[in-house]
Specification:
Layout lengths: L16 H10 L5 E4 L6 H7 L6 E9 L5 E7 L6 H8 L5 E2 L2 H8 L19 E6 L8 E3 L6 E5 L1 H10 L5 E3 L14
Parallel strand pairs: 2-6, 3-5, 5-8
Antiparallel strand pairs: 1-7, 2-3, 2-4, 6-7
Length: 186
Amino acid sequence: MHGVPAGAKLHTMPATQDDLLKHLESLGIDVRTVTHPPVFTVAESRDLRGELPGGHTKNLFLKDKKKNFWLVSTLEHRPVDLKALATVLGSKRLSFGRDEQLQEMLGVAPGAVTPFALMNDTERNVTAVLDEAMLKESPLNFHPLRNDATTAIAPDDLKRFIESCGHTPRVLDLAAAAGDAAADSG
């Protein structure tokens, strides 16, 4: 009989932008997606987005020495000091996750990090962290699993989407994670 060996991990293809949009539609979540040239940094995003309304974000895929992983989403202008953020998260010594870990756990490439990628984390290895200041903006803008488009979503719908993926987002005040920078830059 053919089958998967005991203990083997089934590997499924990461969700696509179309899969994401269909999932959002199935949840009754209304989003607006615009395409643009690929962007890899917040600065490039600022230059290309034009007049897209709402909160623009940065998303950090982080790990610690104990192999805990986080996806931290905050407003693009919020300074983040990894040492201060580690304290806020109750962790020690945060660093950026490797590209291979990002691809394996969230199914996206560098430059396309987004909370929408949590739909690919079926093993729930990554903890979603949302900055509470970010959730006061509406809509919020994120890449839809690729960096050549931006999808706008309401904050409550973002939380509902994350929960539909089997994750419970941690909503934290990340002002303390600004470190030596101004506690709240906006």
